Amino acid sequence: MQLDATDRKILRELQSDAGRSLDEIARVVGASKTPVWNRIRKMREAGIIGPQVVIADAEKLGFEACFFVLVRTSEHDTGWQARFLHAVRIRPEVLEAHRLAGDIDYILKVRVANARAYDVFYQSLIAEVKVHNVTALLSMEEIKNTTALPV
Question: What is the pTM of this model?
Answer without folding.
Answer: 0.90
